[in-house]
């Protein structure tokens, strides 16, 4: 394991070719930078500041993608071991009063279980600020909102104060919620850190495949594939959500992409290859200079 602050030192380099990384633990993979210009966003014309980290890294500027990005791969045999490794790495990276986005769904379940059992990490997380990535709008009766899921799995077990949690109201008016979240970004800039999962169709947060991704927080019609993945019978015929935009995700300093499901290996590998394709939303991260991938 590399020491804190030295990810990738002495690690093997390889190229992405289909399904790979079946047995290794850490890899530094240079990506070919044929990605189109960064997604349009008001952030590009404003002075950015990371929440809890005042000096913006260079990759937020127009010259951002002129250097080689080397994603760091961590592979473990099972989701529990992967969760423990992510927990240790975050303990080395996170600092009190920083802001973080964290996911819901099946991918982080083992991680959250490990988190609430680790007293040292719990103490650190009680000193962080949280910005919600995405949320259903008017979810079907009997289904739990992401806000409630995070409260039950993370915020209540850790004893995190409510004023440190900036959630999305699933029952609220979409335009009001988007305005409030946009004001937070305008005031403070994007969080320093995000943990993300990956959808089976390549979505990150709820950015679904499309031709022209909207910028900032926005509403989205969830795809049939996403609805089938996220709901048991009855699966809704249609559902909208609010999601953070790809442009904001690209502006976050460090991304931890947590994909413990081996069945997602093919879509994960495609996301990490150039070029960026908006029909595979996760591919926007392929050249992110602080991308850390955790997979089984």
| Helicity range | 25-40%
Per the principal axes of the C-alpha atoms, what is the gross shape?
globular
β-sheet strand percentage: 5-15%
What's the gyration radius in Å? 18 Å
Query: What is the chain-wise order of helices and strands?
Result: EEEHEHHEEHEHEEHEHEHE
The assembly state of the depicted protein chains is single chain
Mean pLDDT: 82
CATH level-3 fold name: Rossmann fold
Number of helices: 8
What is the C-level CATH assignment?
Answer: Alpha Beta
Structure in words:
- The protein has 8 helices and 12 strands.
- It is α/β, with parallel strands linked by helices and 296 residues long.
- It has a single domain (25-58, 69-295), classed as Rossmann fold, CATH 3.40.50.
- Helix 2 (109-116) packs parallel to helix 4 (146-158).
- The radius of gyration is 18 Å and the shape is globular.
- The protein starts with 11 loop residues before the first strand and ends with a strand.
- Residues 1-66 have low confidence and may be disordered.
List keywords for this structure.
disordered N terminus; 3-stranded antiparallel β-sheet; 8 helices; 296 residues; alpha/beta; Rossmann fold; globular
Put the structure in a nutshell.
The chain has 296 residues and is of the alpha/beta class. 26% of the residues lie in helices and 15% in strands. It has one domain: 3-Layer(aba) Sandwich (Rossmann fold).
């Amino acid at each position: 394991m590399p020491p804190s602050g030295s990810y990738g030192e002495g690690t093997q380099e390889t190229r992405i070719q289909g399904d790979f990384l079946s047995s290794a633990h850490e890899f530094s993979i240079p990506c070919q930078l044929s990605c189109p210009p960064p997604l349009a966003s008001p952030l590009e014309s404003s002075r950015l500041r990371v929440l809890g980290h005042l000096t913006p890294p260079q990759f937020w500027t127009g010259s951002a993608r002129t250097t080689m990005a080397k994603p760091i791969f961590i592979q473990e045999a099972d989701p529990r071991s992967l969760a423990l490794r992510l927990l240790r790495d975050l303990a080395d990276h996170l600092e009190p009063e920083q802001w973080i986005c964290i996911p819901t769904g099946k991918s982080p379940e083992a991680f959250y279980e490990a988190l609430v059992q680790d007293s040292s990490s719990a103490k650190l997380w009680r000193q962080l600020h949280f910005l919600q990535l995405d949320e259903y709008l008017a979810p079907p009766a009997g289904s739990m909102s992401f806000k409630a899921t995070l409260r039950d799995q993370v915020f209540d077990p850790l004893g995190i104060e409510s004023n440190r949690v900036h959630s999305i109201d699933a029952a609220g008016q979409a335009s009001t919620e988007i305005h409030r979240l946009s004001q937070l970004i305008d005031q403070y800039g994007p969080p320093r850190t995000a943990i993300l999962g990956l959808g089976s169709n390549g979505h990150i947060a709820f950015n679904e495949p499309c031709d022209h991704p909207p910028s900032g927080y926005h509403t989205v019609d969830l795809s049939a594939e996403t609805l089938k993945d996220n709901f048991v019978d009855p699966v809704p015929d249609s559902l909208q959500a609010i999601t953070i935009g790809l442009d904001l995700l690209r502006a976050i300093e460090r991304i931890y992409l947590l994909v413990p499901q081996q069945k997602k290996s093919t879509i994960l590998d495609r996301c990490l290859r150039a070029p960026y394709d908006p029909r595979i939303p996760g591919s926007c991260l392929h050249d992110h200079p602080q991308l850390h991938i955790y997979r089984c």
